């Protein structure tokens, strides 16, 4: 099996069967149920599509993946760190992820990961109160959000206003059923798009995440 870098991001790799990988920042460490293997004397971790909305969005042709070595990332809803670990691989030791989660039990699952990864800081905070971590989180290159709340758009926009640099990027994973279980997801995603545009954000791409994540979409935005 051979790997080659994605044209959209040289630190994400694809094999001849279309599976995605990142180069393991911590050799020997598995974060979840992903496969780990060696290729050309380097270790790679499979980025499982059904375990990560970001990898699913890449597979669904979101296009540009503007996450680079050395980037600072604010991750809202980091949970157990599945997706964050792959972002950690991409940004390397010169980058940093500030991971916010409100659930102590879930955040404890992150501890074994960040014990060996110096580029992730886990913060027990409420992403609905972005001013509560101003003393820790600086301006960032990326805001990534995966928060299943009815007001998840408001959370995203407020955190962008506080933390995202000009010309920075945001990934918003929208779970339609968390916003309104009775409304057609297409209409919800249309409403989300309008909210982002009304906030003067440049929407670079919107992709639906089926069949990997039902009733989900990923929005990639740029802060003007």
Features:
single chain; Phosphorylase Kinase, domain 1; Rossmann fold; 6 helices; 27% helix; 33% strand
Task: Give your account of this protein's structure.
The chain is an alpha/beta fold. It has two domains: 3-50, Phosphorylase Kinase, domain 1; 54-223, Vaccinia Virus protein VP39 (Rossmann fold), CATH 3.40.50.150. Helix content is 27%, strand content 33%. It has six helices and twelve strands. A hairpin with a 4-residue loop joins strand 2 and strand 3 (20-23). The longest helix is centred in the last third of the chain and has 14 residues, at 185-198.
CATH architecture of the largest domain: 3-Layer(aba) Sandwich
By CATH, the superfamily of the largest domain comes out as Vaccinia Virus protein VP39
Tell me roughly what share of residues is in helical segments.
25-40%
Query: Which structural class should the secondary elements be placed in?
Result: alpha/beta
Number of strands: 12
Number of helices: 6
Listing every helix as H and every strand as E from the N terminus to the C terminus, the arrangement reads: EEEEEHEHEHEEHEHHEE
Q: Over all CA atoms, what is the radius of gyration?
A: 17 Å
Q: Globular, elongated, flat, extended or rod-shaped: what is the shape? A: globular
Q: What is the mean predicted local confidence, pLDDT?
A: 96
Oligomer: single chain
Portion in beta strands: 25-35%
Question: What summary fits the major beta sheet?
Answer: 7 strands, mixed
Largest beta sheet: strand ordering:
8-7-6-9-10-12-11
Enzyme class: transferase
GO biological process, one term: tRNA processing
Keywords: Methyltransferase, RNA-binding, rRNA processing, Transferase, tRNA processing
Organism: Nanobdella aerobiophila
